[in-house]
Design goal:
Strands 1-2-4-3 form a 4-stranded antiparallel sheet, sandwiched between helices. The chain is of the alpha+beta class. The protein has a single domain, classed as NADH Oxidase. The chain starts with a helix and ends in a 5-residue tail after the last helix.
Length: 177
């Protein structure tokens, strides 16, 4: 894959808020997670797990858990949810968190999530990363006491991808030659 193809993949990936009712194949989800699990993390701690919800009743409950204050109504149509759970971190990254006052676990999970949604896009699926949700409700649904970091709606998109508006390159890139 060359840089042009990578850029095309990045431009193709967008937050989807209109999914078809076509179910997502379990094998496809496994392939996506299999590829994304090679994302880098501080001290190779890999402080994440992915809980996939496709069963209809649980899926409806997850959709309700992300629909607070009238937002994320599209979640009702998502055929699958990938819930990113923070797992215990290794000692060295924990110490680094304390010393540097930086949440490396959150950074690691962000990197992993980026790999996950780009891989999903490459597999022909659409995603929407959701950060606003009822944590206790989701913990109960997937039976975990660990921190829920993100919920990703996953499915086959039913929407056209619009062009992305971003800052100009000279606004974000600085060279010190």
């Amino acid at each position: 894959m060359n840089i042009k193809e990578i850029k095309e993949l990045i431009l193709k990936r967008a937050s989807c808020r209109n999914f078809s009712d076509h179910p997502v194949e379990r094998e496809k989800i496994e392939m996506i997670v299999e590829a994304a699990r090679f994302a880098p993390s501080a001290c190779n701690s890999q402080p994440w797990s992915v809980h996939v919800v496709t069963e209809n009743e649980k899926r409806k409950k997850i959709a309700q858990a992300v629909q607070t204050f009238g937002i994320n109504k599209f979640a009702d149509k998502a055929p699958a949810f990938m819930i990113i759970v923070q797992e215990k971190s290794q000692l060295l990254p924990k110490l680094a968190d304390l010393i540097k006052k930086v949440d490396y676990t959150a950074i690691d999970i962000g990197i992993f999530t980026a790999h996950l949604v780009l891989t999903a896009t490459a597999a022909g699926l659409s995603t929407c990363i959701i950060g606003w949700f009822k944590t206790k409700k989701i913990r109960k649904i997937i039976n975990t006491k660990n921190k829920i970091r993100l919920v990703i709606a996953l499915g086959y998109g039913n929407q056209r991808i619009s062009s992305k508006k971003r800052k100009e390159i000279n606004e974000i890139l600085k060279f010190y030659d």
